[in-house]
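Proteins fold reproducibly. Take a sample protein:
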Amino acid sequence: MRRYPLLLCAGIVLMLGADPMPPTSQTGPNPLDELDPRVVPSLLVQSAMQQGRESLSRGEYRAAVRILEAQLAKVNGNTHYLALLEEAYRGYIKELQGRGQVELAERYLDRLAILDPGARLTAAVRNPPPAAPATPPAAAKTTREPAGDGPRLIVRGRSEEEKTAGSLVLSSGPSAIDLVARADQEFQAKRFSEAASLYQQAYQKDKSLSSTSRERWAYCKLHWVTEQINRAGSVKPDWFMLETEVRTALSLAP
């Protein structure tokens, strides 16, 4: 009989007694480890956009604003999302203005101005202050004196003092009142550049312009700024000068 070395036999025994297939792990990967934490915020944003579009299509601007603002912290600069919110703001602001809720409309206009810095300028140009009716010319001073046969109308001429005062006024050019009246006429005719020049001349003569005149003067300035931007084309406008004009207009009609 052939004899095998001891070590070889021991190796054979160990091989036969060992499990030919190592046990596999009975526990698989944790399904929770496969979840991406970014999925839920993304789903909320997409859902808000869908609901916002539906509300806008129905003209429900207030609901669209509420829906879109609720997930605003999760959008991470999504331009499509912000464009929807901007559209919702514009529609809601018009609704509030139509209902006379000016203060609330101003609050949402502040939010819209963050997304579109030119929103306030556009609103000012599209909604100029109402034009006041033209001031009728002053009538001549008249007095009535009783007469024997009935009342008689007597037209009184100017005294020497009044003539002297009038000549002094004429020598120094038109008064602030006359300049404002001419400026109002130009404003009503939508000749805003001419109106702005006349308002400025009136202001140089009398710093106490009425609030209406200041509002119209401010509108003329904003109209000029808008024209400069629209005409700029490929040429870069002087933004510093335009910003100065806008700030001046806002100080005239805060």
